[in-house]
Amino acid sequence: MSMSMISIIGSFVFLTSALFQQGEALSVDGPSILSRRAVVSALSTAALSTAAIAPSAANAATEEKPKRSFRRYPSIRFISALGDPKSSSGSGSETWGLWRDDPGPRGVYLKDYDRRLKANNNVAPAGWSFDPTDWWVEEHGLIMSTPEPLPRKSVNKETKEIIPEKQYVVTGDREITTVLTVRDDGTWELEKGSLYDVTHLPCRSAAYRGDTCAPMNANLKDFPVKPGAEMPVINGCAKQDYAVLFVLGEAV
Question: Which of 103, 194, 180 is nearest to 140 (CA)?
Fold first, then answer.
């Protein structure tokens, strides 16, 4: 998850600027499936500043959904998710994580662990702390900061009431951009597609855990990891792979 990754979604990000007005609200009701072809077409025909995603005719005929507003983040965030790739809903979101900034550029290569982490009391040059018994690696062999727990509650702006769920706009930078709902009880669901559909395949991540788990045990020849492939096994470590979702904004 390096800065070069962000350039992959260049034209896509321009369209999301149209879908989310920073500091303003956008009503979103219905499908939000966008492709690069749609992006290019939209950009070539008009200068986009705001846009609404209208409900499909089928949905409109059966029920009228309440309008929702979403706030676009100033920069893309990243969710680390566990679940059946074929599923559009499930449980266990209490184990999911969130990076508010791209952890790649703030990471430390496995080969530099001794010099840049161990020699500095396990504090990275970017300021995050390394836990020798629970650490994360991305597809290029960069040790990353541990993601924070994914927030699963929100606040009603008007009543200040705590709502036991939170909604995010997520994408895998392919065909589907949709709303992910995570709840305080750990359940989750996508309005469109499956977990695989909103996974960014080039981004690979895994947590390596255990008392005998050490970065120097990694085989550097196992990196970089191919898009969609599992992260490599590291001797002495219990490995857990996570899907990585781009997060473009949240419900307000």
Answer: 103
